[in-house]
Amino acid sequence: MARKGESKITKRLAAPKVAKIKRKGQRFVVRPSRGPHSVKSSIPLTVAARELLGIVDNVREMKAVLNEGKVMVDGKVVRDHRLPVGFMDVISFPTVNKYYRVLYDAHGRLEPREIDAKQSVFKLCRIRDKTVVKGGKTQLNLHDGKNILYEKKCAAGDVVKVELPTLRVMDYYPLTEGSVAYVTGGKHAGDVATIKSIAAGTQTRKPLAVLEKGEKTFETRKDYVFVLGVKEPAIKID
Predict the structure, then answer these.
(1) What does the DSSP 8-state code read for residue 195?
(2) Residue range(s) defining the domain that contains residue 112
(3) 161: enclosing H helix or E strand
(4) Residues 25 and 38 reside in one and the same domain
(5) 1: Cβ contacts below 8 Å, ≥ 6 apart
(6) Cα gap 21→17, rounded to integer Å
């Protein structure tokens, strides 16, 4: 008999590298469902709550908490225990006053970091590209799958600060020299540094960014650079 639908589990050893989970022990782990983030760039909500935060002990407990409407992602109540959560997503447990923002650690793995209630009402989203929609309006397509209308001048790679869950644009941060940025990949993953310059790509090399952290200067791929603010980060990192 043929299998119906996608698999809901995956072997721990085969789980994406961004998943900060123990590779030994139980053989299988929950696989992310289809959603705003790809499988390779996200972790299931159950994995975040059970293995990284220790809020629940198993999938059954997670489903019970979700069914009671006690979990929110980006300001909205969610019910899917396999929901993919990715970089900059805000996970909230309002009944116990716990809030977390998903960030990368020094090894390029996703982990929820605790924030306060004031930080939980907004998030930063990188502009993936722009589209002109009906009426000649400009639609921004963001890194987390969200789409918003925004008429001010901006470019792919820039970052907008949006209110949750309304998605109202609160501020805008350009990908340019002097901006403070977060490195999302490579050997400098997790570092917060100031953009010193940006070099265009060639036929054999992708665009690079030169960043400065204290007295140290380093290069990384431009698409690893996520702007956090102009003079200082707009979000709590530590």
Answers:
(1) E
(2) 9-117
(3) strand 159-163
(4) yes
(5) none
(6) 9
